[in-house]
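New to this. Explain the following:
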Amino acid sequence: ERDGYLDKLTVRVELNHSTDSFTELENLAAAVKGKLRTMLGVDAKIKLESPNTLQRFEGKAKRIKDLRSK
């Protein structure tokens, strides 16, 4: 997405099991955000999704959606 002149990255992460533990979810989001910052040098918003909610693809998956206006 684009906010003014800045690009913003949102990473959607599908959980492999449901949990009601807010602390566990917070720790997972922080770990993913930290790994992305360390490995790729990017800061991203992490959005945790319920199990089996992200669309599945057959063949080559399109996993990146550019929401920036042209």
About this structure: The chain has a mean pLDDT of 87. The helical segments are 22-40. The longest strand covers residues 10-14.
